[in-house]
Specification:
alpha+beta; five-stranded antiparallel beta sheet; four-stranded antiparallel beta sheet
Length: 191
Amino acid sequence: MKPIEAAELLDLGAYEQVRERFRARVIAVKRARYVALGPAMTVLFENRDTVLFQVQEMLRTERITQAKAIQHELETYNELIPKDRELSATIFIEYPERDERERMLIALAGVETAFYVLAGDERFAVIPDGRGTEPERTMAVQYVKFPLSDAAVAALRGGAGALKLGVDHPAYRAEVTLGPETLASLRDDFA
């Protein structure tokens, strides 16, 4: 997927005019791309639409209008767009109670390297973002990528075989088979 360019962005006034329709469309796209990974993690598989929405919303919320600041947002968020033969995801670690969340973020130190994708007989290790990580705790939001083989991409395109997402950490283990709606949405990314 190609990165988002500044020329594609709407200015604040133009975005306000289309925001509700655009937001509704992206929420529908995201619905198929959200996956529960056990009881306390949710994964959003990113694509160009989800990232464009994030950029436009950030510009709107922060009232960003200067070209240099817009370029900074683009550089930051474009890193979430998957490249060829790659899945990109944002992983949310979700514990509603503050004390439990703090305890688990410490217990989950290093979890950013514990995610994986299974496609057929192949297991693909995660490439964590690495920014803001601390050795004694993890972050509640993780940005990760999963490089895939040509065979895995071909299987995904063709709808052959299951695709699983997992995490294997001493403090948290879970694995989920991606459902048909999620697979169809991911397949569109590789069309």
